[in-house]
Amino acid sequence: MTDKTATLSIDRGEGKIDAIDLPVMEGSLGPNVVNVGALTANGYFTYDPGFTSTAACESKITFIDGEKGILLHRGYPIEQLAEHSDYLETCYLLLYGELPNPAEKHEFVSIVGKHTMVHEQIRTFFNGFRRDAHPMAIMCGVVGALSAFYHDSTDISDSHHRTVAAYRLIAKMPTIAAMSYKFSIGQPFMYPDNSLNYAANFLHMMFGVPCEASNISPTIAKAMDRIFLLHADHEQNASTSTVRLAGSSQANPFACIAAGIAALWGPSHGGANEAVVKMLEEIESVDNIDKFIARAKDKDDPFRLMGFGHRVYKNFDPRAKVMKQAADEVLEELGIQDEMLEIAKRLEEIALKDPYFIEKKLYPNVDFYSGIILKALGIPTSMFTVIFAIGRTVGWIAHWNEMISGSYRIGRPRQLYTGYAQRDFVPLDNR
Ligand code: SDX
Asked: N or C of the chain: less Cβ packing under 10 Å?
């Protein structure tokens, strides 16, 4: 809190002015916030659909400066973490607030490894799905159902339960994700191999088969790990806000993460990486780019340039820059010439010079290049958002735990009501 006050003067008509003093709160970084809690007692609500100007909570986990294109996890720039850290180390940082020392890191990685398997009965769930079910549909269902198995980590008031739930979710998301892929292609599920690191274990479960030894490329595993890291957290985005809202009702952690997965699925959010690749395939050639740019600018055309624009970033998404560099490196290391990457780079070049995109400050976001790397790594398009969900699980849990371990109230927004005033029922014969 600061000693500053914002005074809201509201004209109530007939010369009457309400002056409402609202305290101003100051964070360590970023804009100050006006605490509007006192408005209800004065007969007013704030109105902010989409929460463009609303801070829904206080948090110490991630800071974004959209104008400068800055992303910090517990103060560390994403570029430095992407270059020097790895996914599980970043998970530790997001959960506990500090980078682990060697002993702490070894213990954390070892405990996560002990939770990579799922209850054997969970395998039978998959038979209830169609083989062509979208893997995100399976993820929503199976992750939500984990609360039916792991009763010893659903008591949100018990910090040990919360810790075990965090380990279980971080460890089991790759296993369940790989199972949803194997199910879709009719191959047997692969058990995790804990002699492999986190990303390599995921690739082993995705592409390994029981009749052959896995041979995971360290290059591909490192690229996969960096993609998980770049998706780990992003402050109060739609899916994280969903997890917080579900958690505020004291729902168990597995149910809250399933809610986050559902929110992430939309093409405006985590579903954009899949939509980017479909868009690039539809563009098909650099010769068609201008036509699609024109469509993106046409108010009467619902088409949007997928992978462009962001609620917060009005500059380059720093993750997109890292992802673009990684795309070049991975394709070069794998010796892949991908026309799609050329289309993406040309599309970015043209869009960034176009007055529409400049005026609206539309830049490539994290999803613009991720699909290209994932495709190069052999990940099927339908699994792209699942990959995002694996990486983001730790961010969802870190925010959920930050809220539950502190003081919180159930989230219950109000509304501007524009429907009928009270009226009497009309019997059927009189209608
Ligand atoms: C993620 O919040 C996060 O942090 C999310 C995320 C995370 O890590 O959790 O970063 C991950 O979700 C990234 C975003 C992925 N989505 C896409 O790439 C889909 C395409 N982008 C958009 O749909 C859009 O940019 C959003 C959803 C990302 C942001 O929407 P906003 O903030 O509500 O912006 P808006 O829709 O109000 O757009 C502002 C203007 C509009 O024009 P006007 O009505 O003012 O004339 O910009 C235009 C929009 O039409 N616009 C676009 C555009 N994005 C916005 N025009 C063409 N192509 C686009 N991609």
From this structure: C
